C-alpha cells in the first residue's frame, strides 16, 4: 500500500494526520503538487512536483496509484478515476468515495459546475473545521485498520 495525497489544496491538519499515520504503520506516502512542499524528512515521505496546469497533479496520481493504495483528494473527477481501479479514496473532510456513491457525487459536481459556468453564484464550501478534522481522522483510521487486517 501507498498513500497518495493531492497536496495542492490539502489542509495542514489533514497533512499532519497523514504523516503520523504513515509513520505509525510504516506506509509510504507521496504528496503530489504543482508547487514546492516542505515536509519532514523520512524514508517513507516523498514528494512529486508536477508542472503547472489544470489537472497535472491529478493525472500523475491517476497514472501512478494502484489497487490497494489509498488516495486523499477533494477532486471528484480524480476520485472517479481511482475508485474503479480499486484505490480507496477519501476527501479531506472524511467522505469515502465508493463504487456506490462516486457516480452521484460526480453528477452533482458537474451540475454545480454548469450552474457556476452559467453565472449562478453557488457559494463555496465552508471553512475547514475541527469536526472536519475529526471526521477525516476517523475515516482514515477505519480504512487503514481494514488494510492492516488484510496484510
From TrEMBL:
InterPro entries: UPF0178 (IPR003791)
Pfam families: DUF188
Domain of life of the source: Bacteria
Family statement: Belongs to the UPF0178 family.
Record NCBIfam families: PRK00124.1
Record-linked HAMAP family: UPF0178
UniProt protein name: UPF0178 protein DB31_3822
Organism the protein comes from: Hyalangium minutum
Amino acid at each position: 500500500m501507498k498513500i497518495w495525497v493531492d497536496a495542492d489544496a490539502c489542509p495542514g491538519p489533514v497533512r499532519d494526520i497523514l504523516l503520523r499515520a504513515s509513520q505509525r504503520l510504516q506506509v509510504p506516502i507521496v504528496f503530489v503538487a504543482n508547487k514546492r512542499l516542505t515536509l519532514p524528512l523520512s524514508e517513507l515521505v516523498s514528494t512529486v512536483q508536477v508542472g503547472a496546469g489544470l489537472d497535472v497533479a491529478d493525472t500523475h496520481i491517476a497514472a501512478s496509484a494502484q489497487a490497494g493504495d489509498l488516495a486523499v483528494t477533494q477532486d471528484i473527477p480524480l476520485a472517479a478515476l481511482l475508485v474503479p481501479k480499486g484505490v480507496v479514496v477519501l476527501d479531506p473532510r472524511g467522505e469515502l468515495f465508493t463504487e456506490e456513491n462516486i457516480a452521484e457525487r460526480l453528477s452533482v459536481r458537474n451540475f454545480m459546475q454548469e450552474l457556476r459556468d452559467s453565472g449562478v453564484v453557488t457559494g463555496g464550501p465552508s471553512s475547514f473545521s475541527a469536526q472536519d478534522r475529526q471526521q477525516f481522522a476517523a475515516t482514515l483510521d477505519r480504512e487503514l485498520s481494514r488494510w492492516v487486517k488484510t496484510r
